[in-house]
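Methods — Computational structure assignment.
A single polypeptide chain was analysed. Its primary sequence is given first, followed by the predicted tertiary structure written as structure tokens.
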Amino acid sequence: MNSLQVISISHQTASLECRQALQLSKDEAAAFMQALKAEQLVEGIMVLTTCNRTEIYYETNHATPGMIQEKLLRFKNIQDTAAFAARFTQYSHSESTLHYLLEVGLGLRSQVIGDRQIITQFKESYKLTNDLKLGTPLLHQALQTLFRTHKRVHNETDFRSGAASVGYAALERLSDFYPRKEFSAKRMLIIGTGQMGTDIARYATSFGFTDITLTNRTDAKAAKLAADLNVQHIPYQHYLSEISEFDVVVSCVGGGEQLQPEQLGAAKAKRVLLDLSVPQSIAPAASQLANTILVNIDQINNRTQAVLATRQAAIAEVEEIVSEETIQYAEWLQDQPVAKAISELKSFFADVLTSELAKHQQSAQPADLNAATKAALDRLIRRPAGALRATAGADRQKLLSSIQTLFNITPAEEITHV
């Protein structure tokens, strides 16, 4: 029997270094999913990879979480697999996997509780799964349950009030180094305009920043966002020549070479480097530069206390909704054998009727139509009648009762004559 399972390594169980080692690029995620499918370990699969977690959700009828975990560690060329084993969270039953997925997707397990980015990351991950034709019924129903639950939480609770994403928290962190009233005088460079960089660019103006510059590997994307937000843009190939002029540098790119101290240049006054990338995109040695403060994603502390208090108060309501949706998913799972049987019966009946009517499609004579109807009925009753006659005793009575219940037939002993 198929089940929905998950393996996960996240900020709740592993250090930044461990998470970096298992970070998957989009191309790597695609290759890993296709490899597991080719090996027939999974029927469907989705990889969620963010700065805080790498998770593999999959449908299988025989693979175990340990097998998938081992495949991931080998795929990422991890030699000391034992050191990573204890860092994984695993669920092997569909209902518990769905419950965990909902908690992650709603931000209950995020580094900043209620993080709004996570639902977008789920949607992007699911899109990749569908693009690769790796979706399956259990996985599809789980994601549809998440999207429905997300709407319920938004409409029925205060859990989504305010803004408390990692990007927002990073901007709050800057107030530890500059008085907020001075933000308008500080020059900010945002490297990378993906979801995180876009969020920071949008939030920065509300914090008082007015001198904001964007850059991105795809220049057109940064240029468009800069135009939308009425901020500045510099081509990616030129930003290193100007990077030392900025008071705040926010790096939201991963997968490339780390920025080295010599590339950052000397800071004329206090400078803050926010490295929100996984893997890290700014070399740790940069913290040794004069007048330079380096903050990585694990050092980001949520400063939006009012928002957190509201969200904490709403957690019980959110968990109740999660429980309700998990029960509904479990009921859907119970209905799947019935749904499959009905579908097969429908196909069988359709085939019988089509084949019998095809024999008489040139004739409109009542006798011929009656003959076709009788032939179809005989064929339709043949299988259940044969199965019924092949049983005896208690087995026959059980099967007979099932048929009577399914087709609402009155048992013989209840028939009365008038």
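Note: The chain has three domains: 3-162+310-334, 166-303, 359-395.
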